[in-house]
Amino acid sequence: MELAAGATLASLLPHSVLAGEQLANVKKAAGSLPDELTPFKDVTHYNNFYEFGTGKEDPAQNAGSLKTRPWSITVEGEVNKPKVFDMEELLKLAPLEERVYRLRCVEAWSMVIPWIGYSLAELLKHVEPTGKAKFVEFVSLEDPKQMPGQKSATLNWPYREGLRIDEAMHPLTLLAVGLYGEVLPNQNGAPIRLVVPWKYGYKSAKSIVKIRLVEKQPMTSWMEAGPNEYGFYSNVNPAVDHPRWTQAKERRIGEFLKRPTLPFNGYADQVAQLYSGMDLTKNF
Ligand SMILES: Nc1nc2c(c(=O)[nH]1)N[C@H]1C(S)=C(S)[C@@H](COP(=O)(O)O)O[C@H]1N2
Ligand SMILES: [Mo]
C-alpha cells in the first residue's frame, strides 16, 4: 500500500481511537508479511512487561503510571561520539516506517504486529561505534514508583538485554516508537523499545533508557534468572526446546490450531548467515 502525499497511515487504520496520538508521515515498508495482523486489542492487552506485573493483562492495567516525557536514551561505551538523545530528537532521527513483524514469545505464543520505527543502525551510526564494540547492551527504565512490578524481585532490575553488534546493526532490528499508526501504548514499551523479530520476544527490551556498546558479551536479566533456559542468542528455533516445553509449535493469538514454529521465526533468508558455523544448540 502506497500512501498518498500528506496522508498518515493512522488515518487509514480503524484503530486510531485508543491510547495515543497518531504518528504522522509514516512510510509503509515494502515486503510486508502475508500473515494476518493480530487485533489491536490483543496486541495491547496480552503483554509481557514484568515491571508492571507478571499477568498478561497487568501491563495494560498498570502501565498508566509510566511517565514517558521527558525521556532520553543515553548511548555510551565503545563509541567515538557518546550522546544523550532526547525523545523529540529520537522521533526525528530517521524517517518513520511501518514494519509488520511476527513476534514469537519464548512461552510459545505469537502475534503479528505493525510496528512503527526505524532501524537501530540509524541510531548507532550517529555515535560511531569503535573497533572494540562487539556487543550492545540495552537497559530499560528502573523506577519502582512508576513501575510497581519492580517492588518484587521477579527479575534483577533494571531489565537488561543484549545483542552482538552485527545483530544490532542488521536492518531488521527495529527501534519502535509506535504500533498500529499510533504512539506506542505504555504497556508495549513506551516511549521507545527494541523489536528483534527473529529472536524470542524477551530480547526486545521495552522502555529503553540506556544503550551501551561493549567489548564483552553482556549479562542479561533472563540469563541471570535461568541460564539453562534463556541463552544470550535466543534465536527462534523449533529444533531447540525450552527445558520445560517444546518450541516446535506455537499458538498464534486469535487462532485455534497451533502452527509450526519457523527457524528464525521465518526470517532465516535474512539472518541465518549471521550464525554460519555456529552450533545453535549450544548457542541457544
Ligand atoms: N523491559 C522489559 N522488556 C520486555 C519485557 C519485560 O518484561 N520488560 N518482556 C519481553 C517479552 S517476554 C516479550 S514476549 C515482549 C512482549 O512485547 P509486547 O507486550 O509489546 O507484545 O516484550 C519483551 N520486552
Ligand atoms: Mo516473551
Q: Write down how many β-strands occur, each being a DSSP E stretch of 2 or more residues.
A: 13
**Silhouette:** globular
Between the first and last Cα atoms, what is the distance in angstroms?
A: 37 Å
Low-confidence stretches: 1-7, 9-18
Mean pLDDT rating: 93
Using the CA coordinates, give the radius of gyration: 18 Å
Q: What percent strand?
A: 15-25%
* Class by alpha and beta content: alpha+beta
Please estimate the helix content: 10-25%
Order of helices and strands: HEHHEEHEEHEEHEEEEHEEH
Question: How would you describe this protein?
Answer:
This protein is an alpha+beta fold and 284 residues long. Helices cover 15% and strands 23% of the residues. The chain contains eight helices and 13 strands. It is globular and about 45 Å long. The chain starts with 8 loop residues before the first helix and ends in a 13-residue tail after the last helix. The N terminus is likely disordered. It binds ligand MTE and molybdenum atom. The site of molybdenum atom has 6 residues, from loops.
Compact description:
This protein is of the alpha+beta class and 284 residues long. It has eight helices and 13 strands.
Keywords, please?
single chain, 284 residues, alpha+beta, 8-stranded mixed β-sheet, 5-stranded mixed β-sheet, 8 helices, 13 strands, 15% helix, 23% strand, disordered N terminus, binds the ligand Nc1nc2c(c(=O)[nH]1)N[C@H]1C(S)=C(S)[C@@H](COP(=O)(O)O)O[C@H]1N2, binds molybdenum atom
List the SSEs and their pairings.
Blueprint: H1 9-12, E1 27-28, H2 40-45, H3 58-62, E2 72-77, E3 83-86, H4 87-92, E4 97-104, E5 109-119, H5 120-127, E6 135-140, E7 160-164, H6 165-169, E8 174-179, E9 182-183, E10 193-195, E11 208-214, H7 221-225, E12 249-252, E13 259-260, H8 268-271
Parallel strand pairs: 1-4, 2-11, 5-12
Antiparallel strand pairs: 2-3, 4-5, 5-8, 6-7, 6-11, 8-9, 8-10, 12-13
The structure holds ligand MTE and molybdenum atom.
Ligand MTE is lined by residues 47-51, 103, 105, 140, 159, 188-189, 201-202, 204-207.
